[in-house]
Amino acid sequence: MPWRNKEASSPSSANPSPEALQSPSSRGNMADKLKDPNTLGFLEAAVKISHTSPDIPAEVQRSVKEHIMRHTRLQRQTTEPASSTRHTSFKRHLPRQMHVSSVDYGNELPPAAEQPTSIGRIKPELYKQKSVEGDDAKTEAKTCGKINFSLRYDYENETLIVRILKAFDLPAKDFCGSSDPYVKIYLLPDRKCKLQTRVHRKTLNPTFDENFHFPVPYEELADRKLHLSVFDFDRFSRHDMIGEVILDNLFEASDLSQETSIWKDIQYATSESVDLGEIMFSLCYLPTAGRLTLTVIKCRNLKAMDITGYSDPYVKVSLLCDGRRLKKKKTTIKKNTLNPVYNEAIIFDIPPENMDQVSLLISVMDYDRVGHNEIIGVCRVGISAEGLGRDHWNEMLAYPRKPIAHWHSLVEVKKSFREGNPRL
């Protein structure tokens, strides 16, 4: 056809392009590369921008082609290498088992775990060293003298004999730089049986040399603990606790078949409790007669008020109404004892309609022939009382005509009692 002949004789045929010089197989390869979306450089080089633009020289086309080929080879070098058959099988089955749509199977090594910094991290060795040093300093600061005692067991009478020998280097509790020490002895866990030494006046190195007997079977000694409390005697206020010694193992020094002397450091008491003793009494109310009966039964472990280590206790019961004392009654005096037994009844006439307005103040007193009588400790029962005092009163009202007995701990008299009732 004419137009075909004209095209064949066109000036461009004189200078054939590189594409025209290529063999059919090369053209097939080029077609495949054009179909490949990753070989975008070939696509751009093969498309002619405009039919009116001048032809690109062969040298330029060759340099462009080499540049594109180099760029394509660099891209191929960054492709993922082929995986082994086992790895490919693992890739195929893992998403099915994990029920996920896509899993990253990159062969890159997992990043190294982040190393924790020292900021905010606890170093136990530092705390341990500090704790050990603190304990040593604390132990040295808590000691307050030494005490010497001995233990021996009397197999024939089944009695543990505790001998308080002496104390050394006690702290001064008085303004004159001295103390009036004495020792209380318990065989724990029993606190009902409390024994104590005599008071030694104005000394920091007392010599007691006193024996104390605790009836206890030999089989029970393994479960018992010896508790020694060192006090400073004070005639006009509560006694100051100097320190204590607790012997957990009575067989620490020997089998107790022979008397064994023991020295122990006196430790400051962790919590100083006011030990004034206890009182037992019963309450009984007769509603028809309007009569309230308080029976003072006994006291135990009372505070020593005399220099001999004993007291002359009696009990005074005051009937209070709205803070005012209406009546007072008292028991007999028991001489030279810390565990008096009374079994004495004190009666008050109170109408049933006034029972919610009254209360009883029970005061354990120490009789003094020369000076004035001192209060050892008090307790209170009534609707307005606290703790056991209120519970004991309510139990009495709930069970009329029946004596209800309880032990009550003695406490120091409150300042309000002294101010409101100077004679209490």
TrEMBL record:
GO terms for molecular function: calcium ion binding; calcium-dependent phospholipid binding; clathrin binding; phosphatidylserine binding; SNARE binding. Pfam families: C2 (PF00168). Residues 143-264, 275-408 form the C2 domain. Residues 8-20 have a biased composition (Low complexity). This is Synaptotagmin-6 isoform X4. It comes from Tursiops truncatus (Atlantic bottle-nosed dolphin). The gene is SYT6. It is a single-pass membrane protein. GO terms for biological process: calcium-ion regulated exocytosis. Residues 75-87 have a biased composition (Polar residues).
